[in-house]
Amino acid sequence: MVTQTKIMSLSLTFLLLILVSTVSVTSALRNLSRAAENSGVWCVANNKATDQQLQDTIDWCCSDEGGFRDCKPINPGGVCYEPNTLRDHASYVMNSYYQELGSTKKQCDFSGTGTTVRHDPSHGDCVYVSY
Q: What is the C-alpha separation between 41 and 29, in angstroms, rounded?
């Protein structure tokens, strides 16, 4: 009987160990998956850009000449309107332009006012894409 009790105890310990290991592996995989979702490169306005430069960038990106015509998200009522700052609005359109045209350093220059970052600048419902 003692031997059978020890075997059952060892079996339960082994099953518990397997269960805990499975939960740990599953949690680790979920964390890796979240990290992968947030990886990428984005183009945003740098800290040196003046308000006039930022406004010029918005105007150009949202024009036929700039080629990026969907600026609805930064208009009043749009998902990226808030915070209502030139820097945030310019960063949104700069990133959209950069992503749509191949994500090269040249496409994030914007006359020296753009920079690439590796942290996702998305906030709330405002999603900055990264392809």
A: 23
- pLDDT tens track for 108-123: 999 999 999 999 999 9
Evaluated on CA atoms 119, 82, 115, 65, the torsion sign reads positive
DSSP labels, 52-99 = HHHHHHHHHHTSTTT-----GGGSTTSTT--S--HHHHHHHHHHHHHH
C-beta separation of 43 from 98 below 8 A: yes
- Two tokens, residue 57: 């960038």
Q: Is the pLDDT of residue 89 over 50?
A: yes
For residues 124 and 80, what is the distance between their CA atoms, to the nearest angstrom? 9
